[in-house]
Amino acid sequence: MKIIVVGSGYVGLVTGACFAESGVNVTCVDVDEKKIQKLKKGVIPIYEPGLEDIVKRNIEKNRLTFTTDIIEGIEGAEVIFIAVGTPPGEDGSADLNHVKEVASEIGHIMTNYIVVVTKSTVPVGTSEKIRKCIQEELDKRHVTIPFDVAANPEFLKEGAAVDDFLKPERIIIGIDNEKTGEILKKLYLPFVLNNHPILFMDIPSAEITKYAANAMLATRISFINEIANLCDILGADINNVRKGIGSDSRIGSKFIYPGIGYGGSCFPKDVKAIIQTAQDNGYELNVIQAVEKANEYQKSIIFRKMADFFNNDFKNKVIAIWGLSFKPKTDDMREASSLVLIEKLLAAGAIIKAYDPAAMDEAKKHLGNRIKYASDPYEALVDADALALLTEWSEFHLPDFKKMAYSMKGKVIFDGRNIYDPAEIKKNGFEYFGIGRR
Hints:
The protein has 438 residues and is of the alpha/beta class. It has 3 domains: 2-201, NAD(P)-binding Rossmann-like Domain (Rossmann fold, 3-Layer(aba) Sandwich), CATH 3.40.50.720; 211-294, N-(1-d-carboxylethyl)-l-norvaline Dehydrogenase, domain 2 (Orthogonal Bundle); 299-433, NAD(P)-binding Rossmann-like Domain (Rossmann fold, 3-Layer(aba) Sandwich). It is built from 18 helices and 14 strands. It has helices spanning 10-21, 33-40, 51-60, 70-74, 97-109, 126-141, 161-166, 178-188, 203-234, 238-246, 267-280, 286-298, 301-309, 337-347, 360-367, 377-381, 401-407, 422-427; strands at 2-6, 25-29, 64-67, 79-82, 114-118, 147-151, 171-174, 198-201, 318-322, 351-355, 372-373, 386-389, 412-415, 431-433. The strands form 3 sheets. A 6-stranded parallel sheet has the order 3-2-1-4-5-6, with helices on both faces. The protein has a 6-stranded parallel sheet with strand order 11-10-9-12-13-14. The chain has a two-stranded parallel ribbon with strand order 7-8. The mean pLDDT is 95.
């Protein structure tokens, strides 16, 4: 079987590489010439555990190829996945220009029946827009070539994307005929041998499922963050509360870990998009709007705690930061809470010394030389007045507190992920501030 994946960003590259791993011949297409040249050599543009090995292995076996020209890969292809970016516009709605451009190009060059599948996260109605773009190009050519469209949203967690694709909990596919379903069922069969389901449904339902899933997860995060903030006020401990509610089978323990707000490429964008979709159709998503508002507040929670501790005097205070990416096991800093804190600290006159195991290069793109970059965690602590733990990388979990105390000028830790035991921190001579911790 032969497929094309248009777009070699996070979703497209994982999709193409993992399909190639199952024995499918995959051509990945992207307009970025520099990126394609690097990918041909097995150099991947993102940090994602396990992905580089799969890419290199399938390049060597000639199952995975890269090009800037979709014409090179379309002959004999049965399925084309559209996995280009859908960035939010000024009103929060998804920008579909790249998706529609790809659809028009497909209609301009296709010569045989093909299934066009939307892998990008797109609002309801996008598949019909894709169908229209393709048909308009076919009409311009005065040819009649059958094709079908489908919606197949991705559910990949950054830092675990390869495992998520190879061993999915479920696969969502929106179709409007059985033929399309059979083609995609055959393509995905190697990935559901673990008995997890392929859920076929109508196209609009598949399109909204991704948004609904991310909005639900974002809701859980904002909910527990608000309860943690209340615990701070009342003198309760959110860890006890979290365990208490998480033991209820109707609630469960996932995504109820308090912190400094969600970020990344999906949750912020998708929450905005589903809010805008509802507004475009005359409906207000009051709960989800509150989720977004709560998350914006939470991104500043560490700054508020620091401002209280330092009496709003940050002038020449040296703040060490451990963790810059929005979550562990990724270098992604899109909508990262670290950026909010750093910008506020810089504006207040603080000096920032930061370390992250993977996101240093990405941080430099966002922050330039306005902060200092350490080569290891302990270098960031030298003469620091405080430490802010922002990303729960595993190497931060069991630090040498004696070494930390020797290096730091101030003995205070702001734990934005609640990974430390407050009693142990205090025993080692530090003051401790967590999220909803006593």
